[in-house]
Backbone:
């Protein structure tokens, strides 16, 4: 995954700090907790740089560390998504559970998503401070790990890459805005 090295160099040259890498035990714990398998290229990324440090962005792109990666169906539980403007937008969308506490607005997985198998997608980053999210398809078997960009306010999405390697390659060559 040569693009990963290129990406690390770009970040370093721009003063962007990455998180310390995770180890295989942390990946195994995530896999066990979520009944999924992390694809090799995504695992390599996590064991190399594990997202950006808190508060860091490259342009408007933000890649999250393993401990922040969540199933797409829990999108509204993000504490940072509870700012007044986003909260108002979420309340009008199918992503908001008004009966949950303010700190844990968990999406009901039975919501009518336009994305088939929405529960198999995991959010690993965002663009423009949660304007849209990047999610990777994970399952308990290897393969078929496409990346989507999803807009929670309209429950719309589109595929942006066929794998995590493709995703990083596009970020390196075209920038994060090419993936929204």
Residues:
């Amino acid at each position: 995954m040569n693009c990963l090295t290129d990406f690390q160099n770009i970040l370093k040259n721009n003063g962007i700090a990455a998180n310390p890498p995770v180890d295989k035990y942390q990946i195994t714990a995530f896999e066990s907790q979520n009944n999924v398998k992390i694809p090799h290229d995504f695992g390599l990324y996590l064991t190399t740089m594990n997202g950006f440090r808190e508060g860091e962005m490259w342009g408007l792109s933000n890649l999250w560390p393993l401990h922040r990666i969540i199933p797409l169906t829990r999108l509204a539980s993000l504490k940072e998504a509870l700012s007044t403007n986003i909260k108002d937008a979420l309340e009008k969308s199918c992503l908001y559970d008004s009966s949950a506490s303010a700190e844990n607005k968990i999406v009901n997985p039975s919501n009518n998503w336009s994305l088939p198998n929405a529960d198999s997608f995991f959010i690993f980053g965002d663009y423009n401070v949660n304007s849209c999210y990047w999610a990777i398809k994970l399952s308990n078997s290897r393969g078929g790990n496409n990346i989507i960009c999803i807009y929670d306010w309209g429950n719309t999405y589109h595929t942006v890459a066929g794998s995590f390697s493709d995703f990083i390659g596009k970020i390196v060559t075209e920038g994060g805005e090419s993936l929204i």
Residues 2-13 form the longest helix (12 residues). Strands lie at 61-63, 70-71, 121-127, 132-137, 147-151, 156-161. The first strand starts at residue 61 and ends at 63. Residues 77-87, 92-111 have pLDDT under 50 and may be disordered.
